[in-house]
Backbone:
């Protein structure tokens, strides 16, 4: 029987974040948001770091 792959690493989904510059919501990778990586707003093209304010 084959071993089961680690399914937690494959659970990468999109979450909505608010841009602090233009307050527009955009979708970003959940893993990037959780890591605190720099994100770019597709509306105003500014870089920002998420502070875990996710829009449901």
Residues:
């Amino acid at each position: 029987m084959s071993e089961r792959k680690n399914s937690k690493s494959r659970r990468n989904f999109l979450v909505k974040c608010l841009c602090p510059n233009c307050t527009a919501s955009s979708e970003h990778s959940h893993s990037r948001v959780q890591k605190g990586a720099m994100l770019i707003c597709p509306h105003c093209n500014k870089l920002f770091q998420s502070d875990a304010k996710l829009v449901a």
Q: What stands out?
A: The chain has a mean pLDDT of 80.
